[in-house]
Design a protein that fits this description.
The chain is built from eleven helices and 14 strands. The protein is of the alpha+beta class.
Length: about 260
């Protein structure tokens, strides 16, 4: 591991000012620190944001749930508010990694990293999320750009994630047995004005399935998509699953999610 400077910020404004050169923010460090140890990434400064109290916590208002960016997966999973209003989100958080990861990893860190097999990005797309940073608000549709790529700019810090409370929703994934990451994960949400289906693990970046959404808007049940053919073109192919198998899993996980709505 290469040496770096470790700094702590007391608020978002201070954290943003500390960013210069090859610096980055640190909260749970569940992805960042392993990357540094394996020399896959190197930084001159790590800015600790874990002490910024305003970045942690859960609030419910106006049919929205707002989750602070440094809120851990374990807190999301056990939250009474989230289990009441969006139980699918609590279930998703409970299925991330292992207890160590869930008690250190944060929702903001997961979204900012945008691993193509991460769980939270699918929740953001399906639940019409808005990502609040220290500079602006970004629709989830425009936030996730590509593999490990987001719309965040230099020095921009995620402060909270705002989710729309759905009428019905569920998340189902076929996990990698070693890491728990999604080989394919499908988040289905019936919102007030639309149905959204987001898919993670199957491609280079989380995406919405317009075809599944169109059919489920007419018939929100598995019978509504039984004749839908999921194409394998542009899907991931690796040692864990072929593109064709991932295409098959998308439909299987959609069926499972619908059964849990």
């Amino acid at each position: 591991m290469k040496s770096f400077n470790f700094k702590s910020a007391n608020n978002s404004k201070e954290a943003s000012k500390l960013i210069s050169g090859r610096a980055t923010f640190l909260a749970g460090g569940m992805t960042l620190l392993p990357a540094i140890k394996l020399r896959l990434a190197a930084y001159s400064d790590l800015i600790n944001i874990k002490k910024i109290k305003s970045l942690s916590g859960i609030k419910v208002s106006n049919k929205k749930i707002k989750i602070g960016s440094t809120t851990t997966h374990a807190i999301v999973a056990s939250s009474k508010e989230i289990n009441k209003y969006i139980p699918s989100l609590a279930s998703l958080a409970e299925g991330i990694g292992d207890p160590q990861v869930r008690n250190r990893g944060t929702i903001g860190g997961s979204i900012a990293n945008n691993d193509p097999a991460a769980d939270y990005p699918s929740a953001c797309l399906a639940l019409n999320a808005i990502i609040h940073t220290n500079k602006r608000k970004i629709l989830a549709e425009k936030f996730f750009k590509g593999i490990f790529e987001t719309d965040l700019k230099k020095g921009e810090l995620i402060e909270l994630v705002e989710f729309e409370i759905p009428e019905k929703s569920a998340y189902a994934k076929f996990p990698n047995p070693a890491s728990g990451y999604a080989i394919v994960g499908v988040y289905v949400a019936k919102l007030k004005n639309e149905v959204r289906v987001s898919i993670t693990g199957a491609s280079d970046c989380v995406f919405r399935s317009k075809e599944l959404e169109s059919h489920l808007s007419k018939n929100f049940s598995y019978s509504g998509i039984v004749n839908v053919n999921i194409l394998s073109k542009n899907l991931n192919e690796d040692m864990h699953a072929s593109a064709e198998y991932r295409a098959h899993l998308i439909k299987v996980m959609t069926k499972k999610a619908l059964s849990n709505c």
